[in-house]
Specification:
This protein is 27% helix and 25% strand. It contains 14 helices and 35 strands. A hairpin with a 4-residue loop joins strand 16 and strand 17.
Length: 761
Amino acid sequence: MPPRLTAGLRPAIAALTLALLAACGGTTGTDTKVGPPARIEAVGGNGQSGVVGTLLPLPLSVKVTDATGAAIAGVTVHFSVGSGSATVSPSSSVTDQVGVATTQLTLGTVAGTTDVSATVSGLSSIATFSELAKAGPALRAVVTPHTLRLSVGQESATLAAFALDQFGNQVAGTATYVSRDPTLVTVDAGGILHVLRRPGSTYVVATVGGKVDSLFVAVLDASSTACSFAASPVVLAVGASATDVSASGYCARNSTAADAEYVAIGFYNNTDAAATSSIEVTGYGLGSPPALAVAQQSVNQGSQSPTQRDGDWELALRAREWAEVTPERVSNAQRWMVQRANGALRAVAVPNVGDVLTLNTNANDFCSNAKNAQARVVAVSQKAIIVADVNNPTGGFADADYQSFATTVDTLVYPVDVDNFGAPSDLDANGGRVIIFFTKAVNELTAQGSPTGTVLGFYYLRDLLPKTGSPLGSCPASNVAEMFYLIVPDPNGTINGNVRSNGFVQSTTISTIAHEFQHLINASRRLYVSKVADIDEETWLGEGLSHIAEELLYYKVAAVSPRQNLDGNFALSTQARRAQLTTYMNGNLGRYRQYLINHEAQGPIGTSDDDDDLSTRGAIWSYLRYSADRLRATDGDLWFKLVNGPQIGIANLQAQFGTDPMLLMHDWAASVYTDDNPPSVDARYRQPSWNFRSVMPALGITFPLFTRTLNDGFSTLATLNGGSAAYFRFTIPANKEALLTFTQANQVPTGAMTLTIVRVR
């Protein structure tokens, strides 16, 4: 969650506003009539510099004026960072009486230029800021390579050493090198290492920026083995693993009469998904590279299927919630709810089929600019009120279809979600019913041929807020109801040229209801039942729980349970089972596929700006399922605890798992490669509920896990983000030994790279 504007900054902003009043020619009077916004310009805070990770001293300020240059008050300005991990707080700000809106910028962790833009909805004019993030003081030195083995005929090597700040940014400085055994090797002023004799080993010490690091050097001769001067060889049986792999090297021996195949799994143990570090793996004594099971180039990374949810749009929706739902607004809403419960709250008449409701469909603005639509009540059940926009495209669902959805909510979706996550609040006092609004407004959110997927539906926290009340608690555009919005059929493609057949919409509706209902339960219970400080779960974890809701729906429909290692044989055993998997699990499996392609850049945790793309969603769903399977014999109340506890994000996982979630994430990352490959692998490297290598191809979904191949004597580099992993495949010839070494570049105190080796053949 982006940092809130602190009380200490308010005086500075107030002083700046008063100064701008005179400088910008503004007025605090109310007699002058002004036109609509015509221009936005930066008026303060541009061109600053600061150390990475720190708050800039001056706020970023913009002024909004009309065509005559008159300042306009009450305009919402949206601030956004162009790239990197810098954050603005607040991300949206309203202009004051002199037309000025402000925000504060916290520089990201990467040195360089940070660009910020300020925009007003419907206004083509943009205000821009360019700020400089400078590297901090030197924290440590890094010399590369970290381990050097010089074979016969190799008489020299080039070294490099850098000073790094706390975030891994390079700090200026000249490196010097000292050999601990100058009779074995020497290093000249240019960093070139020279061999003087063989065999032997020593260390070279590098100093730069006042910090020191060392390099292990082994000089080999004709009698040396791959593991000489390193480690004692260890024999791994098929399925066995080694986690005690140090940067100085791990020696494995193949004692069989055939080549043995292994995988080395690099994992970046850092809870900041925006943090980046590299792992360089080198193998000595390796055999011929194993054949690639799936080439990365063969994977189609083009436009998404219309069944894939548009994560980018949903991320922007959640960002608006983060900006708008302030602690003041939360506390006022909770006081409003208490007042209603203590006397003013009365059961309302449940509408009848045919009644027409007026509902706001604006998914962009939060509490302003209501875009009201007329919604006819088309079905009412014990737990659902289904309404349909009277202006939906023709040729869509009949009332009987809507009644079928209502019945399914009562008998399937509501019991599954409520049993696992808890019951939602009932602020509209309609007997606990949820309003499900089928509206063309959802269709309008997907541009023609959108490459990021389709908006299938959404829940919006603003509908849980009071329409009227104290200034910080009221939300005039709220529908004051537990509700969410769904896509509708458009068989003729009248909206943005996107054809949405009845069959397509019907196939996605029930799982989308389960997905959005989890969001609604999560927020409403945090706001009005648990009354915790953080009512918005971290986006990546909230989405993961909603994808768990879809999976739980599948288990209920298919009359199966988790931890059965469902595979392709099961998927194809009957037409009904195939249809159930396709209907309820196609989305999760498709998102997991995206993770398999992008696992070096993405993991289960979203980035600091709440990145929530398909890869992250696929990863967090799989990780949550793995964690539940690993920690418990049954799911039990785990999902309920994650929704109803006071924490969010990593802290929430830590509290409810009762163990370090990053240790579980390491084992899960290994299981992505080793599950059912081979079957004899250690239990912690298995995924008990799904055999993905089998079930995905059975449904026509490839298993495109990207791997890297190690070649003898050559280094292979992979760059990882926090919580992500890389897979290095290699072989050891019959009755031979091989040495594996690895180096982490840009290491920071908050995270370290680990390497795990598993024998798979």
